[in-house]
Amino acid sequence: MSNKVIITAAISGAEVTQEMNPMVPYTVEEYVREAKSAYDAGAAIIHLHARWDDGTPTQDRERFRVLIDAIQEACPDVIIQPSTGGATGMTAEERLQPTELNPEMASLDCGTLNFGGDEIFVNTENMIIEFSARMIERGIKPELECFDKSHIDMALRLVRRGHIHPPLHFNIVLGVNGGATGTPRDLLFLVESLPEGATWTVSGVGRTQLPLTFMALAMGGHIRVGFEDNLQYTRGVNGESNGQFVERVVRLARELGRDIATPDEAREILGMPARKQ
Ligand code: KMH
Ligand code: ZN
Question: For the chain, is the Cβ count within 10 Å smaller at the N or the C terminus?
């Protein structure tokens, strides 16, 4: 177990809006403000969904390029992890566009699930194979997004068949309406289902965020926070910035005797190539 904790900030998401919390970023300037607040507070990874200025989610390659360049200028060594999940209803081709920019890392969703109401987040076996092949071809480190136990099983099946290559890094996303709930038992069960040597982070959606952060810190896991997962800092009170959520993880981690990984340390822990200087 690494003493160092990697903090990911999921700064924007595709489902949350400024009506829910006015600090959710839409414009490039707002993205830079949110990314920098998280980076300055200790985030090593920025998980990125793109939007147009009016807030509409997009996987447009050129919008990603602009956002990545602007964030990189403000946060020079941070790891930027574009989403290949995008928003529900997008096609595989649409979702894969940010991989054409050869980012260091990207999310790779490992199963289909309900996503509230009539929404379905589609990730068929063949899509996962196709997305993984694209990432292998372009040297992109996948973060294996698992919203349920069956997603972990699917990822491990594809590892055995050679479609996904170790070292494996999982993101266990709990508390989505349609995925597994976020009880301590859920997290324990899912972490115990991972193979020896895999690294993992937890994303607790909504109210599950704080208890799961405590638990994952104690278990040696890594942590994701940010507006994509949680808009409220305390019950009924909106978060002021992504950085505010990261600051809380930093405080809790230090109390539990864990240090915060820099982006370069995160690359090493995750088995990624060192950053080109
Ligand atoms: N917005 C969700 C439909 C990912 O980033 O890879 C998908 C998602 C997962 O957020
Ligand atoms: Zn996402």
Answer: C
Helix (H, G, I), strand (E, B) or coil at 194: coil
Q: Is the confidence at residue 131, as pLDDT, over 70?
A: yes
DSSP assignments along 17-68, one per residue: -TTT-TTS--SHHHHHHHHHHHHHHT-SEEEE-EE-TTS-EE--HHHHHHHH
Task: Kindly report the protein residue whose alpha carbon is nearest to atom 4 of ligand 1.
Answer: 85
Question: Given a cut of 70, is residue 126 above it in pLDDT?
Answer: yes
Does the Cβ of 88 fall within 6 Å of ligand 1?
Answer: yes
The CA 226 to ligand 2 mean position distance, Å, reads: 10
Domain at 7-269: CATH code: 3.20.20.70
For ligand 1, whether the C-beta of 109 sits within 6 Å is: yes
Q: Give yes or no for residue 121 CB within 6 A of ligand 1.
A: yes
Give the model confidence (pLDDT) of 149-174 as tens digits: 999 999 999 999 999 999 999 999 99
How far are the Cα atoms of 36, 47, 71, 181, 215 from residue 75, in angstroms, in the given order?
A: 6, 13, 6, 34, 29
Q: What is the pTM of this model?
A: 0.98
**For the chain, what are the domain ranges?**
7-269
